[in-house]
């Protein structure tokens, strides 16, 4: 007796495919495989209800349901966008704005260097001596624009 005969033959294969796709979505989240998992599950239920459904019709049903679920998902994410926890997560320079930093090399003639965390950044702004505390106003082309406190 084949292992799939106990759970409906081809229907069982579609349901197992749905389960595998669902697990793959959890392992590598990308919000795409879940739609294929849903399509495989719907196809599995259809094959379970219509056991004589030819393989070509099963594949066509899977293709149609895949397109339908992807379009529904696309619409859902357009209408209900997922808010990120930190919009500046991967924008290091934007995260610096507003921070108070220390002048490392005196800012003379509008140019100098400041200590940002454990690094040194080129800076421009009003003249300030070594050790002065200044606030980051912006970051432009890798250069920190500072203002006096």
TrEMBL record:
Transmembrane region positions? 6-24, 31-49, 55-73
Superkingdom: Bacteria
Q: Which UniProt keywords apply?
A: Membrane, Transmembrane, Transmembrane helix
The identity of this protein, by name, is NfeD family protein
The species this protein belongs to is Sphingomonas albertensis
């Amino acid at each position: 007796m084949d292992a799939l005969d106990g759970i409906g033959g081809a229907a069982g294969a579609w349901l197992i495919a749905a389960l595998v796709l669902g697990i793959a979505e959890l392992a590598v989240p990308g919000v795409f495989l879940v739609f294929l998992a849903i399509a495989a599950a719907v196809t599995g239920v259809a094959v379970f209800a219509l056991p004589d459904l030819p393989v070509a019709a099963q594949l066509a049903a899977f293709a149609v349901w895949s397109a339908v679920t992807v379009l529904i998902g696309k619409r859902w994410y357009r209408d209900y966008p997922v808010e990120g926890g930190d919009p500046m997560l991967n924008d290091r320079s934007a995260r610096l704005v507003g921070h108070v930093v220390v002048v490392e090399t005196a800012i003379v003639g509008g140019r100098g260097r400041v200590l940002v965390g454990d690094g040194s950044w080129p800076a421009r702004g009003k003249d300030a001596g070594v050790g002065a505390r200044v606030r980051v106003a912006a970051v432009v082309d890798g250069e920190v624009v500072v203002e006096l406190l």
